[in-house]
Amino acid sequence: MTERERFIKALKREPITGHCPTFELVFFLTLESIGKIHVSQQSFGQWDQMSKTEQKLHFDYIADMYIETAEKYGHSAIFVHPNPGDYDSIVRILETIREKSGDKYFLMMHGDPTFEIPNGDNMMDFTVRLYEDMDGLKKEQEERLNSLADTAEKLYKCGGLLDGFALCADYCFNVNPFYSPSVFAELIAPCLKKTIDTYRAMGYYTIKHTDGNIMPIIDQIVQCGPDALHSLDPQGGVDLGEVKRLYGDKVALCGNVNCGLLQTGTEEEVIADVHRSLRQGMEGWGYIFCTSNCAYTGLSLERYELMNRIWRDEGIYR
What we know:
Blueprint: H1 3-11, E1 18-19, H2 30-34, H3 52-73, E2 77-79, H4 87-101, E3 106-110, H5 123-132, H6 134-157, E4 164-167, H7 181-201, E5 205-209, H8 218-223, E6 228-230, H9 240-247, E7 252-257, H10 259-264, H11 267-282, E8 287-291, H12 301-314, E9 316-317
Parallel strand pairs: 2-3, 3-4, 4-5, 5-6, 6-7, 7-8
Antiparallel strand pairs: 1-9
Helix pairs in contact: 3-4, 6-7, 11-12
């Protein structure tokens, strides 16, 4: 099987042999690891002034960055950050990755129209709208979904460039969700379910990402029908084993090596946490090994590679 096929089997919760699939939602440590700046950390304000040759070199750079990272760490999937993000560039980037790697990797992009936790600049205004303009918020989500669905349909007609979408709206703090269960049920869940159903009807898979303590709303998220949940955040008190027990027959799980321990824990604590994640996640199939967030800027590459070595040695279905 290709890595893509193994990843899809994990999403379907089907038995596989060999290594448990692994990936990272984002791997920002590319400069230290492979000598290439991550594309999302680059600015191309003069894109329109580039020659066709310069633009092609840019697409080659992006594809090589993703493929070299995946090859080095055994990733089965690549989460593509288009830069620039116009539709034609998205197609060119995906085409270039496919030209260089064939169907080896599962390719996904962000595609979540639901409202994430508002930032400090607009939190007050957004919170007021939850009570005074709920219909307006619903309409905005619907418009965002229609735009994303239009792009997804165009990509589908390009013939197998993209396999799925990571729905990357964060809903939760470490203590509790930003949305109460009742507000989540009224505003977020209907749009999330419609988004997942829309993508599935086109043949796409979906992975729902949110950090923090998802437990008060996890029932609703699972009922929306994503193929997988990411990142099952231990810093938010989410227990991978418990989530596996409650929902492992309904949804695949991605995670959940503790990023806090990777950053500040001892080596012994990191090793123990990686073992825990593999032990809890791999039981009963339907598991994709990764961190509890991403390999973010400033994370120790040495720690990430320690985690990866343990996966290579022990993350194997016999």
